[in-house]
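So, can you check?
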Amino acid sequence: MPSYAPAFNRILDDLAKRQLRLDFQFGTASNIYEPLRSIGAGAFGIVAEAKVSNTYKSDGENVAIKKIGHASSTPTLARRTLREVRVLRYIRHPNIVVLKDVFRTSGSLGMNVFMVMELMEGSLHNVIHGAEEPLEWDLIAHLLHQILRGLRVC
């Protein structure tokens, strides 16, 4: 009996790449950033890993780009987006990601805001849920300490 798994996986990969291109249409910034893969999604945005063009303030590094879709659709969302950009623009702390760039595009329901940040290796979610055994208390205390250090400066 033939296996359809490889063909099915290719179709899923192709669909994921198409969705990534649709979600991350950068407008005039598309000659600077090239989306590579989806990293995650939350209540207020989606995040992708992207490569920075060698010709733009970079040596071809990879970054994380958070898209806040329809950021101007409601006054509350517009204020929340502006507050996040302002806070990240001025804070420099080892426990908070660095905001490198901000740009916007027009969307069907208002402005899309893209926040370019340093790319972190791994995630807290993977540390917590990726362990085969429960985390040791020393590691939990260390992680909580790092989180609280970052929150203290906000």
Strands lie at 33-41, 46-52, 62-68, 99-107, 110-118.
